[in-house]
């Protein structure tokens, strides 16, 4: 049996067995340097293979349809974290999930049950991914926005027609791709400045991803980004460590 086939078999029931666990990477306000939010990141804690990162199993989960279970699981963890920590939480949502109207209905019901402010939740959509049939997807995102949920374009600048896509998806946040954050060339600096100017005009929040050095921090701050996340502050950490960081902030 190939490794892919093994992983495909192992993914069956992984959510029910509690193997899909949330890790968190904090986000900081670049004006006050206060911890104000976190991104939920899925990790597969396999009993034999250990901790597996999402890039190694999410594409397979999308192919096999298990992404729906994983997405709901991580979103539930996000809602729990909002209730526990009273900070903003973002969670990645696959375009595959958003093509199914049931996910939107499920999230609306979950928000109602949780009774936490929906504005604390942001769903992230990867900018470079194929979004499929866009008009129905936009209608579903608009339904979530009507409840107060934020819509973020993840890895902004890594794909194509970024600004156009942000407009058509009615985004509320741009997450500047880590490769742009780490590139201090005049061309990239101008690209980030253009994105920030667009975001300000459209009243969108900007988050600089992949901030690893103080020089990068000062640069994205001077360019006007609202928030930052990256190894300068913290790598993704498990729940208990994130809780300690919040308590100490």
UniProtKB/TrEMBL annotation:
<dbReference type="Pfam" id="PF00563">
    <property type="entry name" value="EAL"/>
</dbReference>
<dbReference type="InterPro" id="IPR001633">
    <property type="entry name" value="EAL_dom"/>
</dbReference>
<dbReference type="InterPro" id="IPR050706">
    <property type="entry name" value="Cyclic-di-GMP_PDE-like"/>
</dbReference>
<dbReference type="GO" id="GO:0071111">
    <property type="term" value="F:cyclic-guanylate-specific phosphodiesterase activity"/>
</dbReference>
<dbReference type="InterPro" id="IPR035919">
    <property type="entry name" value="EAL_sf"/>
</dbReference>
<protein>
    <submittedName>
        <fullName>EAL domain-containing protein</fullName>
    </submittedName>
</protein>
<feature type="domain" description="EAL">
    <location>
        <begin position="4"/>
        <end position="249"/>
    </location>
</feature>
